[in-house]
Amino acid sequence: MGTGIGWLDTVLVWGGAVTLLAGLGGIAWRAGRGVARIGRRVDQFMDDWYGEPERPGVPARPGVMERVSGIETRLNGVVHELHPNDGGSLRDAVDQANTRLRRLCPDHTEPDCPPPDPGAPS
Question: Is the full-model pTM beyond 0.85?
Answer without folding.
Answer: no
